[in-house]
Amino acid sequence: MPNWTEKQKQTIEERDKNILVAAAAGSGKTAVLVERIKKMVTEENVPINSMLIVTFTNAAASEMREKIRKALKKKAADFPELKNQLDLLPGANISTFHSFALEVIKQFSYEIDLDPDFSTCDESQAAVLIEESLDELLEKYYEESSPDFIEFLDWYGSEKSNEGIKDIIRKIHKTIMSIPDPFASLREKTDELKNPGNFKNTAGYQFIMGLIRDDLNKAFTFSKDAQEILFEMGLDRLANLMQGEVDFYNALNVMAGSEEFNRIGDFIKDKPGIILKANKTEKDIYDEIKDIVSAKRKAAGKITEGIAKKFFIYDIDIRIDDLKKCYPAAKTLYKLVVDFDCIFHEKKAERKVVDFSDIEHYCYEVLKSDEASGFYRQKFRHIFIDEYQDTSLLQEAIIGKISGENNLFMVGDIKQSIYKFRLAEPEIFQHKYENYAKSEEAMSMKIDLNRNFRSKPVILDWINDRFKDTMNGYDEDAYLYHGKEYSGDYSFEPELRLIETSSENIDKELKDMKAAELEALEVCQLIMKNLGREYEAVEEIDGVSVAVKHKINFRDMVILMRSLTTAGIFLDTMKRYGIPCYADDSESYFDTIEINVFMNLLKVMDNKYQDIPFLSVLRSEIFGFTTDELAKVRVLHNEGSYVEAFLSVADRIESSEMEFTDKCRSVMEKLEKWKAQSLSMPLSEFVWNLLLDTGYYMAVGAMPNGGQRQANLRALCDKTGSFSESGQSSLYGFLQYIENVKKNKVKTGQVKLLGENDNVVRIMTIHKSKGLEFPMVICAGMGRKLNYTKASDKVVFHKDIGIGMCIEDTERGIENKSINYDIIMSRFKKEEVEENIRVLYVAFTRAKEKLYLTGTVNNFEKYLSDKENGFTSELNYLGILGKIPNSALVDINALRDFELTYSPENESDQEKSAAEEELNKVEDLLSYEYPHKNALAIRSKYSVSSINKRAHKPAVLKSETLEDGYLAGDETYLDDKEFRIADREILINNSSFEINFPIPDFMLEERKIGPAEKGTIYHKVLEKLDFIRVKKGGLSYIEETVQNLVEKGILSKNEVCAISLKKIMTFFESELGNRAISADEQGTLRKEQAFNLLLEYNGEEVMVQGIIDCYFEEGDEVVLVDYKTNRIDPEKDFDTEAMRMKNLYKQQLSLYKQAVELATSKQVKQSYLYLLSAEKEIEVLL
Fold this sequence. Notes:
Number of helices: 45
Largest sheet: 7 strands, parallel
Helix content: 40-55%
Strand content: 5-15%
């Protein structure tokens, strides 16, 4: 039993109150939440179906359900009455907000105008419907051409396209849909512009007053600091000379907090012009501090100039009165957004679909009904909400409709709220935290869990030092306290490793690439330096804390980045030095390396004069230019844009670098050829041919996780097919469509193929790492520029402040930003800076033992000086953070000489041996080869199927190809060239060989599905099905699951039509199927289990790889199940056919048996083949 702290015990045991738990990183909040639920269910007999447990992800919900199930099962052995709780568990509400909202809608669909047969719309499909709706909306408005609309067009339209207007409508609509009553809120904020007389009492005005006060206080502090330095150095005359300047900033500071606020702009114009000039006796001393004094004075002046320029261009009262000019345009915008929503709603209704946003809005509408809200208030005696800091306003409103007076349990950490871009509102958590802290809240309380059990004390202290002056509210309640004390020799102070970049005059994009390469080299060096090094982890063994020694492995290291923009460079560099690595970019489809590169190629096809896409394509596997070669272009031609320089080099007839010139010319010839094809071929066909012609499809297949990367590229081809079906076919139109999908942050995920125990260094975004932990963390890209919302939109909206608009003077061609606009942009910036700080907190708190920060700077000495003198900026993470101890400048020459065999001179023989041993293990796993030439005919790796095939060449029907590759009928086995066939395939003819590889959906919708593919489809469906839900939902659930697989692009409609779902249902109705379901209910069912098995074959030791369809435990023994789709000859006796099948697969099942028994240390008591075609099971005796 865990040794809970007093605060954790209180969290577990406190009852009859609304409880908000502020749980810091590594504080065990999930364990505490689960323990509270387990205790209530198993000891207090609270029915599990009287609880609503809301998690942030489906994976978290599944994990929580499994933990509760195990606890119930264990307890039920001694208390049989708890078996009823086990029966209730499958139907318990343990889910995401999204899933719960869906249940509410389906339960009370009659309360709203919604077809009960609705399905959820894929987000990329929704993006297409949005574009159709916008086109229809504007066509209608153009036909009517009302004066208000014409004026709106004059303000925000363009003669070239409607994209500007569409973008305004799209963004405003998306923003307001996070609000419980979106159109009422938009109307209210619109009406506020009609009469802005009350503006100075609004949240927006109060916010900007506070912001200006804070900034002016910083300016005063800088000025005062400069004066204090002069006094400290004995330069009293110069310090006194500065007094007028200090008084000026102090007066501004006072003014900002008084009724004279309006005078700030005019007062700034009267800043005294004081020049500090040292005399002969002062000169030597003054020269020592002149730079820092000057820098602080300039910083103060820059702040005040920025305030004057942004908010006091002219009298603030006039700017407030000018808001009236925005009202007509805002009123038209309101109508446009409402009408757009109606058209969009109708289009979804026609297709019987709802989008992600609709689901929570419909749920909220349903719960406005007393019947519905009363039903759930009565049903749920307890409501648990995990990751509460990421709750949206709409979700909070839904909770308010179903919660009672004292039945809410919320757990989260505002310091880890990093999903503002997904409409999370950390202010909800903060507001409730402050209210619950007040003693008068008798029915509510807050609990702080701030002991961190993940990281070593040295890391926790370092993190506290970084954030106490950087993050708002980082006080003693927010500090990370030591959960596990440690006084051994393995405490490692976090380090900052900085690379000083070259000042050479080259294109920014190229300079960024070179900087990323250097940083990647430093990261490789850190990895190799630490590989095999020992560390001590404090672990709980029988309730006692014990320091256990481990060695750092590749899998123990992670590289965290804000985004994966440079991940491709890191992967290439690490691969070059033999470091196994994997970029976990499954969160966002469009952020994957292969999609980024290929989209850049399409952009170049559309318009080659784009430097960033052009450079990306040149450096990629498509053309393979090194960064030095890219820089050479600028050496040969240093004028114009980079593309223009490249064209000039390619056009040279004579050159001292003819080989390089020819390489450039070859690039342009290929681009011109592909450009011509883009104009003459259908879009989807062109994109697929481009993938093949460039060789990029095959190249990414050779990368780590190549199968997934190829699948992503096929999905891109499918998107072009879907886009073309909508009646549009231009490359430019497709690129615009993809940009809109990205702007709307449409989630287009991909399947994660890497297992937790694969021995590779992971590269992932900081967002992706949330909830994870690693012995060694490298936070890379600390010097990269951060992206903030730019003032490029003509109209912006903030839920608290309202509508910010650009005021257009069409007669004079002048555009001014309204005061609301400037306030909203300032609010956006402040919120984004705060979120960036929280992102850093999440990154640093992933580290258990070692933490490194890496980045690039232009001038290392200036960076150190700025930090020493308290200068910060919001440009990058290095700017946001204050002074960081253990900061070191990396020797670039040493980096360039770095090789795989690198090891420090002071590395012990033991450490060297450990590192070499680890590298040897990795090499053995990744590329096993036999040492003897005469054994080259025997492969080093075999699949179970291939071994099984060589053991049997049976007699089968000639008219059929069976699922495992046999040609039916003539005893003939398929050719020994064993290319692994994925879900879909195509033959590409070559002069010397044939290659089988998958193709996009759009090219095979009408293609006949072969027997081998049918087997793959059946296996995929059985893998994805929840056996327990099949028992409850039957064939309807199977159909629903398959439909979801189609919507996600995992299966095509054509593939689904090729199989029989009834045959799958028959398996679950069989005795064997029922046994499998029972095992799943007990938590002992395993599906699609991959394994590697080392055994002797043909006189050689080989690695055998396979995937076991299904096995489950019964008591202390195991039952094996292998699904088969082979055709059973109806003309023959079934027993004869059954014997054939047993003989055919006996070797395969024998290998499975060995693998399972090794993995589980349990005996396999029975092995079955389940024949889907015959709908019968066969036991195979081994």
